[in-house]
What we know:
This protein is an alpha/beta fold and 323 residues long. It folds into two domains: 18-233, Spore Coat Polysaccharide Biosynthesis Protein SpsA, Chain A; 239-319, no CATH class. The protein is built from 13 helices and eight strands. The chain has helices at 31-39, 59-67, 83-93, 112-122, 147-162, 165-171, 185-191, 201-212, 238-256, 267-280, 283-292, 299-306, 312-319; strands spanning 18-24, 47-53, 73-78, 98-101, 107-108, 126-136, 181-184, 214-227. The relative contact order is 0.12. The model is unreliable at 1-7 (pLDDT under 50).
Amino acid sequence: MSSIKRPDEAVSPPIPAISVVVPLYNHAQYIESALDSVLSQTSPADEIVLIDDGSSDNGFELAQRKLANLPHVKTFRQENAGAHTTINRAIGISRGDYIAVLNSDDVFAPTKLERCRAVIRERPGVGLVAGNPGIMDGQGVRLNSGFAFDWMRRARHFLEQTKLPQLALLNENFVATTSNMVFTRGLWDEAGGFQPLRYCHDLDFLMFACAHSAVFLDLEHEHIVYRVHDNNTIWEDHDKVRVELAAVIAQALSASGPRFFSADLGEQDLAAYLLFLRNRRLTEMLSFFQTVRPAFPSRTAFYAYAADPRHASAFRAAVAGGP
């Protein structure tokens, strides 16, 4: 028998369906902890999609054992294709309206999905939610000092000082990682997926979200714990990282323009921007990349140019020596 609701009877909004996608690569020592953090959520994931990206260790076997006989789980293996390709493939396979990425060396806070669902229901137009990241070392010990801790402290100080969230993210990415993002499938589609960037695909996606959607930074709540260890890709090649970073910043500045600043575009905005330029020490490369950006039909084509081996030595020389 169907029921008829009284006009004054409240109708609860639907609970947002969230798919968790896990790109796995040579993290056998971490993957069980990562998956435990998904399986122990206070508000469970609707789906888990895990793809092993050509690992040479036994992480995939450990993951399959952990996820065996669970409903709404899909696991796959592929030849090594890189993080952005793996994430995009996993999202394409998934079916949730919202996507939560979990890199195989990080962990979710126990209430991450519950908190994100609450934010989404309270803010119907939000396209991306990110929270406060904790930091741990390779053994899972929380860090309260050291490089990563200082980076996060500086990043938050810049945000508090300038009150300009998008510029603060460019100054130092305090979201830290794709593991800290929950976003709509529509935003991912509109962005053309994660871009073919080795080091900054997370920052590029954040900047696209800021330019084209509503971003909610839930910084009073811890959403993930980010693992700092010797094999983080960010440690691989300092100058190559900085060239890629300069390209992403130039793209973001071109796409968002005055949206980085307050409505009056006043002296405080200029002071914040100059501080950002001093901190990044990429002014010459940014100027060049912003100048040539209109020559390319898409940000994908622009990023391919920035990574072109024919220009690598000149670009690396231009950014060498920065922090």
